[in-house]
Write a structure and sequence with these properties.
The complex is a heterodimer of chains A (258) and B (786). With 258 residues, chain A is α/β, with parallel strands linked by helices. Chain A has a domain of 68 residues. With 786 residues, chain B is α+β, with helices and mostly antiparallel strands. Among the domains of chain B are: 199 residues, MetI-like (MetI-like fold, Orthogonal Bundle), CATH 1.10.3720.10; 101 residues, no CATH class. Helix content of chain B is 37%, strand content 24%. Chain B is built from 16 helices and 31 strands. The two termini of chain B are 65 Å apart. Classes of the chains: A alpha/beta (258), B alpha+beta (786). Chains A and B meet through α2, α3 and α6 of A and α8, α12 and α13 of B.
Amino acid sequence: MNDTKPYEPPIIQVDDFSFFYGDKQVLHNISMDFEENKVTALIGPSGCGKSTLLRNINRMNDLVPGVHHQGDIRIDGTSLYDPKVEVISLRKRVGMVFQKYNPFPKSIYENIVFPLRVAGRNSRSELDETVERSLKGAALWDEVKDKLHQSAYGLSGGQQQRLCIARAIANRPQILLMDEPCAALDPIATLKIEDLMEDLKKDLTIVIVTHNMQQATRISDKTAFLYLGNLIEYGDTAQIFTNPKEEQTEAYITGRFS
Amino acid sequence: MNQDDIPTQEQPAYQPKPVPKRFLVSKATLWCDRIMTKLIIGGGFTVIVAVFGILFFLLAVTLPLFKEAEVLEDVKTSPVVPTDGSWGLDASGKRPYLFRHGKEIDFLNQEDGTLTPVPFTLPDNEQITAYTYHSGLGLYPIATDAGKVGLITVKSGLNGHGDPDVETGGKPEVKVGELYPVTESGEPIGKIIGLTYADAGDKKVFVTLHQDADKVRTFVMSLEQSRSLVSDGELEPTGYFELSEQIDGKPSKILANMAGDGIVVVTDKNEIVYFAFDENTETWNKKQTIKQAFGNDEGISVCEWLFGDMSFVLGGKNGSLSIFSLYPQTQADGTTTRLFGKTKEFEPLNGPITHYISSYINRSFLVTSPTQMKLCYGTTADTRWEEPKLNFSPIQVVGNHELTSFLAQDAEGKLHRYSVDDKHPESGTKALVGKIWYEGYDAPKWMWQSVGGTDDYESKISLMPLIFGTLKGTFYALIFAVPVALLAAVYTSHFMPASVKKVVKPLMEIMASLPSVVLGFFGALYLAPKMEDKVPAIIMMAILIPAVAILFAWFWTTRPIEWRNKISHGLEYIVMIPVILIIAWVCWCYLGYWVEEPIVDMVRGVMSLWGSGDFQGTTFPELWRNGFDMAYEQRNSLVVGFIMGFAVIPVIFTISEDALSNVPPSLIAASEALGASRWQIVKTIVIPIASAGIFSALMIGLGRAVGETMIVLMATGNTPIMDWNIFNGMRTLSANIATELPEAAQGSTHYRVLFLGGLILFSLTFVLNTIAEIVRQRLRKRYHIV
C-alpha cells in the first residue's frame, strides 16, 4: 500500500480511483496528485463527478447508502481506506467548505470554536486565540469583532460563508476542500473569498470545485478538467486555459458545451 | 395656444386591446376557487366553534356546582295564625298544620288563612303532657299523664308534589298510635316534661324526662318488632332503663339517634353527655361528657342531629355554631373509641341561636337568631344562604322533609313562608378542592367517594385524589416512556442505517395504533399478576441493562480500530440486542429470585440499626408491606407506568424522530466535516435544533398520558388515594368519568362533578398545549427553524 519512493509523497494522491453509487459508476479510474500549498481547481460540467471526487477526500460520501469504491486515495502516503483510519481524525485533518454556507444556529464565537470543543479543548484562552486567528485568517475579524456573541444568522451571506471558512480553518487542517464556495454569493463577496484563498494557501492545500472559469484562472495554481467521471486533463492552470491539450477541454473552457 | 380647443377635436376613443383568449381564466375555475376557499374557511371555523362549544357545554353543566342557595320569601300569602301550638309542615311544603290544645291538628289553607281542625282522641281520656315534632317522619311523639308514650301520625293528604293523594283524596288524616308505658311496672313516675323518639326500623326508642319532685329523671324505653317469616309481628317493649344516675345536673335536651344505640343529653350545667347502648349487657353506658363545648362558658341553646345522626349541631347562647361528630379517638390508655369531637366551626351568628331545622335528605340545616337566618351545609361548613337582617324575630320555625320550604312565625302570629332552591349544597370550592373533616374520620382529608350504600351517606367529592392520580399515572408513564422513546428516536434518526429505519418507523407507528383497551387488558390480566413477584427482577433489569450496555459500549471502544471499522456505522445494535435479551432473560427468570432474599436480609440489617428490622417475610412484597409499612397492590403504578408508557412511547418517538430527522443535513455535514463524532453532532447540533419538535413530542405524549382512559381504568385498581407509592394504585380523572358516569343521575351533583373532572382534563390539555406551543415558538425562533 505504501510507495517507498525516495521523494516525499504528494500530499494527496489519487490512485486509479473509481467510485460507484450502487450500480452507477461516477468516477472512472482517476489518478492524480495534489500539490502542497497550492490551489487546485476541479472544473467540468454538472454531473462530471468533481464534487464526488472532492467529497471522497475526507470520506464524506461514506454514509450515502450503497456506495463503494475501487482504487485508493492517500494523504501523506496513508490510505484513507486503511482499516486503522479513524474517520473523525481524518476529517479534522481535511476541512471542508460547502456550496451553501451553513453556520450553526449559535453565536459567531461558538461556531468557530466548535471543532475545538468537539475535540475536548475548552481552555478559554485557547478558544479566544483561535477565534481571533481564524476570523483574521478568514478576513472577517474587523467586521464581526464587536458582535462575536451574536447569532451567526445575523451576518450577510458572504460573511456567513467566510465564517464557515474561519470555522473550517479553526483547527488548522492540512487540507481545505471547497465545494463551489462562491456559488451562492454576489460578486463582491466572491472577490473577498478569492482574495482570502490566496492568503490561506500559505498554510493549507486547497482543493476547490468551481463552475466559474474566470474564478479558476484567478485563484488556482493547477486545474483538473473532469468529464463524465473521467479525468480528461490535469495541469497548470495557465496551460489548461491557454493551451489545452485535449479537444474536450478546449471545447469546455471556450464555452462550446457545458 | 388655446388648450380648450383640444378636446373639441374629434378623436377616436382609445380601445384597449382584447386579452388573448389563452390568458383568460374560465368562470368555473374562479367559482371553484371561491367555493373551496369559503369551504376551507368554514371548516376551520367549525373546528374552533366545536372546541368552544365543548368548553361552553362543560361550563354550563358544571357552573351550577358553584351556585349559592336561593331562598325566597312568598310575600303574597303570609296568613296570621294562632301562636299557641306547634307547627308542622308536610313533605310538599304546601300544607302546614298546627298541633293545638293536645286534642286537634289544624290544617292551614295557605290562600285564605283558614284552619281546618282534625280532632283526635287518646284512649282512656289521657292528657298530653309533652310532645315534640319530628319533621323527618312528619309525626308528633307524645307523652301522657298516665306515663305513656306514643306517636301521632299526620297525613296531610298531599303527595310530595303538593297534589291530592290518591289514597285519601286530599283529605288530611291524623292517626293516634298505640301508647306504651315508659316504665316496666306501668306506673307513671312524676310528670313527663319532655321526650324524644328515634326510629331504627325494627327498633324504636323513646327517651323521656320526668319531673319527679324537684328532680328531673331520664328514662329510656325501647320497643322491638319481632319479625318472622309470616308476619311483621307486634311492637313489644324490650328494655327499660334509667339514665338519671349517670347524669350530673338537670337534662334540658335529649337526642336519640336513628340507629337506636346512642343518646345525647344536654344538661343545665352546659354539659353534653353521650350514652351508647351495649348490646352484650343490654345497658346504656355513659361514654363521654363534653364540658365547655364552645371552649368557653357559653351556654348551649340548640343541640340537634345533623342528617345521618353521626353528628350534632350545637348552637350557643352567644351565637356560636359548631358541629360535633363521632370519630375514633385514642384514649389515654391507648385504646381507640368512637366519641364525639368538634369537627367544624361556623362563623357565629349575631345573637343566641334560637331555632334549628334540618333536611332529611342531605346535610343542609337552617339556624336562626332573633335577627338572623342562615342556611348552612354540614359537610363543607359552608353558608349556603344568609338573611343578615331579619325584620322579625321568629318564635317558631318549621321545615319540610327535604327542607325545600320552611315557615317562620313572628310574635304577631304572621306566618312567613320561604322556599329554598339549593340543588347542589354538598358542592362548592371547599368540597371540590379543600380538605374536609368527614364524619367518622379523625382528621380533615381529601377524599373521593361519591356514592355510598346508605341514604344518609356523606358523599366525598374532592377532586384532589383524582387530579393526584392523573398526575401520578402520567408521571410513572413518562418516567418510563420518555427516556426509551427519546433515545430510540435519536438512535433511529441519526445512527440507524436507512434500510433498517424504513422498517422500524412504520412498526412504531403500528404500535401507536394499538387499541388502548388491548394494552389495558394485557396489563391488568397478564402483566400485573406476572410482575407481582418480579419486582427484584425488574429492579435488576433497570440497573443491569443500561449498565451492561454501557460496559459493552466501552469494551467496544477498546477494540482495535480495524475491528470497529468492519461493522459499519449504525449496526452496533446487531451486537447489542442479544446481549440485552440475555440480560433481561437472566434477570427475569433467575437473578431476581437469587438476589431477593439477600437484599431483604440486607435491608433488614440496615433497618435494625434503628430498631425496625423485626418484620416478617423474606420476599420483596413482604419487605414493602411489613418492613416499610406501605401498600403493595397487584395492579399498581409500576404496571400502569409500563403499559401506559407503551402507549405513549410511539407518540413521543414518532414526533421527535421526525423533528430529529428534519435537522438540515447541511448542518450535519458541516459538523461531520469539522471532525465531530456522531454523538457530538447529535448532542451539540441536532438536539438543540430539534428541541422544539422534541418538546412538542413530550407535550403530546403528556397529553396522551393525562387523557388516557382504558389503560388506567383496567390496570390501576381505581383506588382514589393520594399516595406516591409506586406499588399502590390510583384513580385518574378520566377513569373516574368512565367508571362513574353510567351510574350518575343526570343533573345530579355527582353527574356535574364528573363533568367538572372532564372540564379539568380539557383545561389541563388546553393549558399544556398552549405552553407547548409558546415554548416551541420560542425555541424555533432561537434556532432559526422554519
